[in-house]
Amino acid sequence: MLGASVAGTNIQNAIQNAIQNASCVLTGAHLRRPLLSGAMQCPFCRADDTRVIDSRRAEDGETVRRRRRCEQCDNRFTTYERPVLPLLVKKRTGLTEPLDLEKVRRGVERSLAGRPVPEGTVEDIIVAVENAARAASPLVESETIGQIVLDGLKLIDEAAYLRFASVYKDFQGAQDFEREMAALDE
Ligand SMILES: [Zn+2]
Question: Does the global pTM surpass 0.70?
């Protein structure tokens, strides 16, 4: 870590420059927002004002299928609700702990702070993380999660990607930063 503060300053400057120069790449990811996110927003117009108009047990017996209607635009959509098992993450240290999606979310939000990204971007990444964790259930490697976040940010915003990478990959010097910058152009 010798000289880390000097290198750290360079990284900060480089990130600032990248932020000023980077253009926000819109991927349309926000259009693929899943229905099951937080408060049940209308997937068409984003209004919070939606109502359940039908509710029934799905064929598998443990899923509840609900039809909802948006009071604003009158579109209808379906949601599924099922109990979830706790997800576990295996850290690089070898320790296992419950997967804390809020913690992942805070990391992503920090990386995107002040960046002009579409609403729903963070949610897209968190859902991707959760899906990967479920697919790997009961135990997902923390590297897998980090990589998903990196891949997501890379598509959306280079500056945010570099911010997250500098923390996640524990950049030790300007070379690390430049290597990632170069990789972005590949
Ligand atoms: Zn609506």
Answer: no
